[in-house]
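Long-time lurker, first post. I've been practising inverse folding by hand and with some scripts of my own, and I keep getting stuck on stretches where the structure tokens seem ambiguous. Below is the full token string for one chain I'm working on. Before anyone asks, I'm not after the true native sequence, just a reasonable design that respects the backbone. If someone could post their per-position residues I'd love to compare against what I wrote down in my notebook.
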């Protein structure tokens, strides 16, 4: 796990550019740094040493090609055995990538099992090839400067540090952020900075840039029994966990006490002779999952570590994280994630997590609502009648309220894709219009950005979460929080073999009425302690309403919302009443305003 940087110019490369970019990425790789110039291409690297601690330094050169690589290739040993006619000087996965590219070209990507963002420069052919993993576990941004210099880096702050990128605010991306609470993974907050989207590859030749998708999540449903699906899932996840424990340093695990992380911990202990190190977090009496985590730790006799975040300097953390994330980010769980990463880094360099389990196997509550809506017949009048009844009887008849919600989805968003998107919206179009001062929000079409015309049924909802929410929110949150402390995170559920198996399951093996994660429960229930059986989904987000009432956060809010500030300049429709709210829209506006001030963004 590392930070990578590259600068390329068809004419003459400005001096010192990559050095400044590497300096901005030092947190991602505190163990070593390196720079290399090959003609008009300069590569940079900051290293977090995980595999081949002594000979895996980067940038790495083999003949005419050089690479700078961030991530881990978990099946690199198997690939190395296929490439036995190549002479290897190291035992690193980085050198295997170079040999794989020489052998198979871009076709190498289909053979990789791992998380990655890398760039390979061919000095003889004067071509660049860069690629990113399936869901964007590892980030990669690029920009073309005014003088034609192409810049690539792991984080936006490195591009800005080059001195060649201004960072011009993109209002369409701001509006998308206001809607979702994160910048969609096909965009950045700046108009002069692009992201290489997940599962895409970039090529550069003779000054021409081309970006193409190399993998697409395909829902090719197979007919299978629940027993068969459970057995296949167990085998695939077990194999992924075993793969992802490969390291030359100690590997630990995040343990929330939820179904996903508990499964990962149980399987890790199967493949480890010594007790694995597990790390859990709680919020005192407000949100406390620690008892569940302890139950798992006790059953598997892990070396368990806990941190309680009941008392936090919330305002200070909001301001600090604006610098960590580079873009506005409203998912409040980034605060506990940042702190648990800092806590875990004292003991380990690598942790496994349960990320991806909810999106692949139906762990979110909105899936059952969307599914119920799909099964309904009727329209808006029926919804209005049921809604009135549910308001009157909600305290007694929760089922009626759920039915009313599903019917409302059916009436307003009959398409499962749109219905799923609706569950994610923080600020809807009329609210955003008001914030922009009555002008039409400059929003981009999510349906256009993430087409799903060949996906059907509830899978259309899963599709949005896999191509937008997972890479745009969850994986961004984890990568920036972990790498701020030089901690590598790995997600076995996002192993390609696991993913493609999950995509083949019928939707009814994931969600069916009130039942969720059906195939996961079939596969892994025997691994969970009794306390977890029947346990529902518990979010990891911070207690936002409580935080917003804190004196330190109130003071920060007054400063950020003050007339004459950047937030007001960007969103002239902001009113003083908004600054007194204690809800998620308020948190989104606060984090946006703090980000604008932290980066001194021109609006």
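-- Answer (accepted) --
I ran through it position by position. Result:
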């Amino acid at each position: 796990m590392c930070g990578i940087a590259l600068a390329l110019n068809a004419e003459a490369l400005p001096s010192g550019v990559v050095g400044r970019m590497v300096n901005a990425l030092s947190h991602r790789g505190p163990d070593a740094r390196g720079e290399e110039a090959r003609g008009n291409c300069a590569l940079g690297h900051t290293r977090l040493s995980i595999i081949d601690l002594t000979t895996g330094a980067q940038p790495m050169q083999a003949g005419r090609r050089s690479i700078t690589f961030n991530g881990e290739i978990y099946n690199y040993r198997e690939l190395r055995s296929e490439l036995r006619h190549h002479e290897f000087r190291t035992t690193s996965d980085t050198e295997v990538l170079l040999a794989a590219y020489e052998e198979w070209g871009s076709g190498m990507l289909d053979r990789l099992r791992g998380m990655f963002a890398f760039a390979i420069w061919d000095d003889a052919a004067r071509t660049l090839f860069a690629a990113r993993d399936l869901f964007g576990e590892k980030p990669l941004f690029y920009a073309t400067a005014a003088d034609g210099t192409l810049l690539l880096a792991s984080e936006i702050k490195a591009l800005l540090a080059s001195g060649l990128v201004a960072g011009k605010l993109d209002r369409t991306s701001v509006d998308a952020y206001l809607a979702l609470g994160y910048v969609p993974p096909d965009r950045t907050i700046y108009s002069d900075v692009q992201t290489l989207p997940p599962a895409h590859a970039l090529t550069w030749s003779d000054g021409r840039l081309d970006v193409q998708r190399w993998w697409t999540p395909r829902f090719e449903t197979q007919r299978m029994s629940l027993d068969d699906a459970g057995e296949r899932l167990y085998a695939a996840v077990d194999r992924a966990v075993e793969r992802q424990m490969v390291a030359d340093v100690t590997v630990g695990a995040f343990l929330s006490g939820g179904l996903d992380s508990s499964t990962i911990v149980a399987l890790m202990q199967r493949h480890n002779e010594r007790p694995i190190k597990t790390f859990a977090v709680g919020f005192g009496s407000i949100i406390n999952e620690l008892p569940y985590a302890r139950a798992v730790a006790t059953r598997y006799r892990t070396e368990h570590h806990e941190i309680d975040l009941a008392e936090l300097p919330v305002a200070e953390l909001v301001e600090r994280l604006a610098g960590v994330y580079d873009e506005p980010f409203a998912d409040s769980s980034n605060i506990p994630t940042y702190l648990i990463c800092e806590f875990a880094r004292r003991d380990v360099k690598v942790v496994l997590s349960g990320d991806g389990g909810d999106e692949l196997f139906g762990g979110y509550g909105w899936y059952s609502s969307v599914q119920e809506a799909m099964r309904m017949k009727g329209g808006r009048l029926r919804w209005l009648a049921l809604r009135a009844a549910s308001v009157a009887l909600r305290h007694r008849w929760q089922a009626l309220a759920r039915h009313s919600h599903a019917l409302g989805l059916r009436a307003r968003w009959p398409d499962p894709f749109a219905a799923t998107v609706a569950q994610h919206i923080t600020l809807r179009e009329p609210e955003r219009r008001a914030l922009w001062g009555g002008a039409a929000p400059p929003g981009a079409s999510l349906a256009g950005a993430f087409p799903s015309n060949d996906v059907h049924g509830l899978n259309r909802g899963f599709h949005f979460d896999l191509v937008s929410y997972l890479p745009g929110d969850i994986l961004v949150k984890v990568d920036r929080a972990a790498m701020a402390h030089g901690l590598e995170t790995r997600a076995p559920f996002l192993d390609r073999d696991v993913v493609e198996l999950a995509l083949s399951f019928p939707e009814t093996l994931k969600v069916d009425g009130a039942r969720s994660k059906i195939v996961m429960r079939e596969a892994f229930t025997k691994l969970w302690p009794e306390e977890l059986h029947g346990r529902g989904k518990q979010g990891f987000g911070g207690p936002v309403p409580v935080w917003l009432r804190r004196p330190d956060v109130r003071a920060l809010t007054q400063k950020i919302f003050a007339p004459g500030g950047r937030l007001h300049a960007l969103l002239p429709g902001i009113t003083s009443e908004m600054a007194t709210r204690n809800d998620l829209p308020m948190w989104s506006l606060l984090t946006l305003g703090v980000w604008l001030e932290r980066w001194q963004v021109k609006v």
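A couple of notes from the structure itself: The chain has 24 helices and 17 strands. Residues 52 and 301 are 29 Å apart (CA to CA). Happy to go over any region you disagree with.
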